[in-house]
Amino acid sequence: DQFKGLLGYQIVFALMGFFAICGVIITTILLRMIAKKKTLQEVA
Could you list the residue ranges that cross the membrane (predicted)? Predict the structure, then answer.
């Protein structure tokens, strides 16, 4: 264990938060892309 105690917990939870935020951003982008493709298919 390189980071013990409170610092270790802070690093782990900061990393989890970072990945969670990345997941939300990627999900939002994908949902917008899917919605855009659906509207283009409905028009055509």
Answer: 6-31
